[in-house]
Design brief:
The protein is α/β, with parallel strands linked by helices and 260 residues long. The protein has one domain: Rossmann fold, CATH 3.40.50. Helices cover 33% and strands 21% of the residues. The chain contains 10 helices and 9 strands. The strands form 2 sheets. Strands 3-2-1-4-5-9-6 form a 7-stranded mixed sheet. A two-stranded antiparallel ribbon has the order 7-8. It starts with a helix and ends with a strand. 33% of the residues are buried.
C-alpha cells in the first residue's frame, strides 16, 4: 500500500498536464505501430446506444478528443480524475459536448449507486492506486451485471526496464511501479471478475533524437535513480546504443477486458 508521501508524489506528478503530455508526445512521435495505442484501445470498446460510461483517471481525456463524434447522443460519458487541474482541463476540452460530463472522483470512493454504469474504464492508472482492493471493489459495485470493465496497463519488459538495463553497471536498478502490470493484472482482477481477457499491443519506439527520450525519463518521478547520473552522461550512454541514428526501445502495453 502506498504511504501518504507516495500518494502526494502521484498527485504532484499529475497536478498539471506537462509531464503527461511529454510522455504522450514521445509515443506519438516515435512509435513503430502507427495505429496508436489509444486507437487500439478504443477499437476494443463495446459501446452501444443508451450506454453509461465512467472513465476513472482520464488525465487529459486524450483518447476521446478524436472520438467524441462517434458517440451516439444517447450515450452518457463521465470523465473523471482525482486531479482538480486535470478535470478542469478536460471540462474545457469537451465544453461543447452535451453528453460528456466531468467530475473529480477517486476510484477508491465512487459516489454513484450500485449497478449504475454499463462500462467502466481505468487506463494506465491502476498501478498508482493506494488501495487496489478497495478500488476494484468499487468498480465492480458500480458496474451493471452485463457491464464491461476496461483497464490498460504496461508490462514489466518495456521502456524503463530497458533503459535501467543499460545503466545497471552504475548501480541503477529498475524502479518501475509493478503494482498492476500485464504480468500480474490477471491474478489481481480475478478476485473481482469472472471473465477476464488479456490483449497485447505490439509496438516499440524508434527514437532519432535522444533529447526527447531524456525529457521522457525526466518526466517520471519514479525515475530519480536514473537521473542522478546527470543528463549529459545519460545522453552519452543512450547514444552508444543507437544503430544508424536510431535507438530502438521495446514497449510492452496491453489491456484487460473484464466482466462480472
Amino acid at each position: 500500500m502506498k504511504t501518504i508521501n507516495q500518494y502526494k508524489v502521484v498527485q504532484n506528478q499529475y497536478k498539471t498536464a506537462n509531464n503527461l503530455n511529454t510522455r504522450i508526445s514521445i509515443h506519438k512521435k516515435y512509435s513503430t505501430n502507427k495505429l496508436g495505442f489509444n486507437n487500439w484501445i478504443f477499437s476494443h470498446y463495446n459501446i452501444s446506444p443508451n450506454t453509461k460510461i465512467l472513465e476513472l483517471g482520464c488525465g487529459t481525456g486524450d483518447i476521446w478528443k478524436s472520438k467524441s463524434h462517434l458517440l451516439d447522443k444517447s450515450i452518457e460519458l463521465l470523465l473523471t480524475d482525482f486531479s482538480e487541474n486535470m478535470v478542469s482541463l478536460v471540462k474545457d476540452t469537451f465544453k461543447k459536448e452535451e453528453n460528456i460530463f466531468c467530475e473529480i472522483i477517486n476510484i477508491e470512493n465512487i459516489p454513484y449507486n450500485d449497478n449504475y454504469f454499463d462500462r467502466v474504464i481505468a487506463n494506465m492508472m491502476l498501478y498508482h492506486v493506494s488501495d487496489l482492493d478497495k478500488a476494484l471493489s468499487e468498480v465492480k459495485r458500480v458496474l451493471t451485471k452485463d457491464g464491461y470493465f476496461y483497464c490498460a496497463t504496461y508490462g514489466e519488459n518495456g521502456i524503463i526496464p530497458f533503459i535501467a538495463g543499460l545503466v545497471k553497471e552504475y548501480g541503477i536498478t529498475d524502479t518501475t511501479n509493478k503494482n498492476f502490470t500485464l504480468q500480474n493484472g490477471y491474478e489481481i482482477l480475478k478476485k473481482y471478475f469472472s471473465n477476464i481477457q488479456r490483449l497485447n499491443y505490439e509496438d516499440s519506439l524508434a527514437v532519432t533524437n535522444i533529447e526527447d527520450i531524456l525529457d521522457y525519463i525526466y518526466s517520471l518521478t519514479n525515475m530519480s535513480s536514473i537521473t542522478t547520473l546527470g543528463r549529459k552522461m545519460l545522453k552519452e550512454i543512450l547514444e552508444k546504443e543507437m544503430i544508424n541514428g536510431v535507438l530502438n526501445i521495446p514497449k510492452e502495453y496491453g489491456m484487460f477486458i473484464c466482466k462480472k
